[in-house]
Amino acid sequence: MAFASGPFTARRFTGTAARAARQAAARAAGAAKGFGIAAACAAALASSGAAGAAESGKVGLGLPLLTSPFWQSYNNYLTVYAKEMGIDILAPVNSNNDPAQQITDMNNMVNLGAKGIVVGPIDSAAISRALTNASQKDVKVVAVDVAPTQGQVAMVVRADNHAYGEKACRYIGEHVKSGKVVQIMGDLASVNGRDRSEAFRACLKSYPGLSLLEIPAGWKGDVAASALDSLLTANPDVKAIYMQAGGVYLSPTLQTLRRKQLLVPAGDAKHIVIVSNDGIPQEFDAIRKGEIDATVSQPADLYAKYGLYYIKAALEGKTFKPGKTDHDSTIIQLQPGILEDQLPAPLVTKQNVDDKNLWGNTIK
After folding, report:
1. Is pLDDT of 11 > 90?
2. pTM for the full model?
3. High-pLDDT (> 90) share of the chain, %
4. Arithmetic mean of pLDDT over the chain
5. Where in the chain is the domain with CATH 3.40.50.2300?
């Protein structure tokens, strides 16, 4: 949740627009390898987009990473919805889970003349530097998936991450009466990681028969696997696992359990109850096989759709107020001047895993 090289310095993006275009083209081409856009086409789009960005009001797209199937799917939805909405976009840029690189990427988009940016923040606090620069240049920004703790954005598009942790806890609490529960946490520099961790931890106190063990894995699958291996060696009697991001933790977790001969299908008395977050096809397959029990479907399709919807609205001068929306969500006020559209994120179990309305079942 692959890392980029060190950040560019400020001097490196104060050169000519042509050099900025070449940098964006090169990064777009490299990013494209991971999400189905031909590298040459992505590079051409970035290069040609640089020249006309200021005139056409292009929108920049900042991806936090592309090693997760969730973000790969989100990226694919972006191009579909941008075309439907008639939004002129610069080629998406992948920051490889590097907060410093993301700041550079956003500043480059501003230098290329983007009038709006849709970005998935990696670090809730660090991104404030890029938000300040965008605000000073009158560039609108919509944050997707992660809310910044500082800085100005037109809207945050996100699901209720406290609900993710609580739904996972409730499912485990209903199916495991006593024993040890492992929480594989995300990056605590991200508000998502904090919200899910705090909600799960608080909820588990309602189940006195359950004790909590935690792994701070920072959205890194290899870190999660190594720590889980050691934890299971010391605690072979673990009864349940909560993974905060199936896109990065699912495969390493299942591989670790399989290697330790602890991957027992649902229905067996030795089965370890596993609940995940994301709603990717791989999780659905694991539910069908009985390898995991449930996941919270984080709406990759709606993140893309409404991220673009709100950036278009911002560029048109439209504003919003807290309250119910026309798309089954609620806009809340996070802090003065910052609104968040909290999109629905359903719990998926064996009972509804084949629901055709789930975005994870629409990917071929």
Report:
1. no
2. 0.78
3. 80
4. 87
5. 10-153+299-344, 161-297+349-361
> Taken in order 32, 358, 217, 230, is the CA torsion positive or negative?
negative
Just give the CATH number of 161-297+349-361: 3.40.50.2300
Mean pLDDT score, 271-285: 97
> What is the C-alpha to C-alpha distance for residues 238 and 212, in angstroms, rounded to an integer?
10
Split at pLDDT 50, 70, 90, the class of 28 is: very low
Q: Which CATH superfamily is domain 10-153+299-344 in?
A: Response regulator (3.40.50.2300)
- What are the structure tokens assigned to 26, written together? 């090169």
Give whole-number Cα distances, 151 to 129, 155, 303, 338, in Å: 8, 11, 20, 9
Buried b (16+ CB within 10 A) or exposed e, 334-352: beeebbbbbbebbbbeeee
Using DSSP, state whether 130 is helix, strand or coil. Answer: helix
Tokens of 251: 């495969």
CB under 8 Å to 83, separation ≥6 — which residues? none
